[in-house]
Amino acid sequence: MHQPFNKQSTEQAQKIDARRRLYILRFVSYITTAVMFIYGVKNLSAEQILLPIILFTTGSLFLLNIIVFNITRNLDRACVIETLLVASFVLSLVYQGGFNNTALFWVFPFPAILFGLLGVRNALISNAVLLIILSIMLFIPDLITANYKDAEASRFIASLLIVIIVCWINDHYRERSHEAMDKLQQIKDQQANTDQLTNLANRRFIDACLVPSFEKQPDLFFPLSLIMCDIDYFKRLNDNFGHDVGDDVLKSVAYMFKQNIRQQDFACRIGGEEFLLILPRTSVQDALNVADKM
Fold first, then answer.
1. Per residue in 212-236, pLDDT tens?
2. How do 274-279 and 266-269 pair as beta strands?
3. 79 CB contacts (<8 Å, ≥6 apart)?
4. Minimal CA–CA distance to 265: which of 211, 225, 209, 205?
5. How far is CA 24 from the centre of its chain?
6. What is the pTM assigned to this prediction?
C-alpha cells in the first residue's frame, strides 16, 4: 500500500539528477560557447581559417540546442544532441590541431561533461568510442592535418584513459551512494508512517503523505470513500484476556483488512482499536459493499 509513495521518493531523486544534468547542459551551452566565441575572434587573423570556423560553428550549435530545449523542455534529447556536438568538436579540434597545436589540452574536460550529461553507462560507452577514434586519428597521422609527436600522442591517450576511468569510478559510486541513501530514506519514511504492531499506515502517513497527494493528483483519488471502524468491547477484551491477546486481535483485524481491499486502497490504524479505510475512486455504494463484506 505504500508503493506509490516509495515511487514518489524515487521520482524526487530523479528530479534532483535531472536538475544536475540541466546545470551541466547550461554550463556547456553558455559558458563553453562564450569561451569558443572569444577564441574564435582571437584566431580570425590566424593563417588557419579552419579553427575559427570550428569554434564559431560548434558554439552556435550549442546555443541553438539550448534554445530548442528551452522551447521543448526535452532534457534527454538536448543532452544527447549536446553529447554529439561535444564529440564532433573534440574530433574536429584534434583533426585541425588548435592554436599552436594545443588541441589535445582542450580535450580533457569533455569526458567529465559526457558523464554529467548521459549518466554512467552511456557516458562510459561514448567515451570509449571517442577514445578509440582519437587513437586511430593520432596513430595514423595521414588521417589528420595536425602534426603531433608520437610521444605526445601516446601520453595524451594514456592520460585521457586515466581521466575517463576516474570519472567512471566517481560517477559509478556516486550513483550507488545515492541509490543506497534513497533506499535508506524510503525505509525511514516507511517506518515513520507505519504502525509497528499491525504494519498498517498510521495517522502520520495520512497527514504527511496522503493529504498532500490528494492536492497534487486529485484525479487518482476522487471520488473518494472513507470507512471508519473500531473493535467493539476492546477494553473488556484486554481486561479479561490480557494485552497480548488484544495485540493478536489487532493483528488479525489488520490482516483481514489487507486481504479484502484493493492494491490502491489504504488501511490505516488511527487509534488504539480505531481504523480508517481509504478507498480511492470508489462510490458510496461500493464502499458500503466493502464495509458489509468486512
1. 888 888 888 888 899 999 889 888 9
2. antiparallel
3. 21, 25, 117, 118
4. 225
5. 14
6. 0.62
